């Protein structure tokens, strides 16, 4: 058994799988997170090993389910995605309302999904019905620390950070396709999406860790050279918190 790990962006997972295929010529299975499983389809095909190496995922996403339906992924666990999202929202609301957490939720054991039962109730139960849209509201009183002042005029004007038409591809996959984002002083933004959606790649481009294939990053009105060091962004008080 060979164990490798790294960031959950598609490029990192693709390279981990490709490196493992080169290092272990008699490999029978690649088992990893959903991004690794999706990336393994392309890596295994590129290595000419599609008829030899099978793929398993430790949880399900839309691409994993599609891979199972198409026979490219042989196995995955169904880990009750909607239930976990519900628990996450519940925890977030309680945190905003200042309510203490606690208690236990009884979760069903993960169900196995393969080509024979991917459409069965045990597997499909992890996904919301077609057309489902979450609708909810949160009413809470939040105390603002006295040493922080947010002025209305700071929430307007020209963007402090202006990201325009960013494109980025890695071997076998297009990660970002014309992504734009602007952040003004005093604003807080959230990049939200499943593993492999491109969140880390976009932030790495903003911080100068990756150079985009196309597009530009402007900071306080000036374009940053591709791959510009992260201290430019940090010095402008643009913070990045990842979870």
Spell out the key features of this protein.
alpha/beta; Rossmann fold; 243 residues; 2 domains; globular; four-stranded antiparallel sheet
**Unreliable runs:** 103-107, 140-150
Overall average pLDDT: 75
Largest sheet: 4 strands, mixed
Look up the CATH topology of the largest domain: Rossmann fold
What is the molecular shape?
A: globular
Count structural domains: 2
Going by helix content, strand content and strand pairing, the class is alpha/beta
String of helices and strands? HEHEHEHEHEEHEEH
CATH superfamily of the largest domain: Response regulator
Helical content class: 25-40%
Could you name the CATH class of the largest domain? Alpha Beta
Query: What distance lies between the first and last C-alpha atoms, to the nearest angstrom?
Result: 29 Å
3D architecture notes:
The structure is a single chain. With 243 residues, the chain is of the alpha/beta class. The protein has two domains: 1-142, Rossmann fold (3-Layer(aba) Sandwich), CATH 3.40.50; 152-235, Rossmann fold (3-Layer(aba) Sandwich), CATH 3.40.50.300. 28% of the residues lie in helices and 19% in strands. The strands form two sheets. It has a four-stranded mixed sheet. Helix 1 (10-23) crosses helix 2. Mean pLDDT is 75; it is low at 103-107 and 140-150.
Produce the secondary structure layout.
Blueprint: H1 10-23, E1 29-32, H2 34-46, E2 54-57, H3 62-69, E3 75-78, H4 81-97, E4 111-113, H5 121-124, E5 161-170, E6 173-183, H6 199-206, E7 214-219, E8 222-224, H7 231-235
Parallel strand pairs: 1-2, 2-3
Antiparallel strand pairs: 3-4, 5-6, 5-7, 7-8
Helix pairs in contact: 1-2
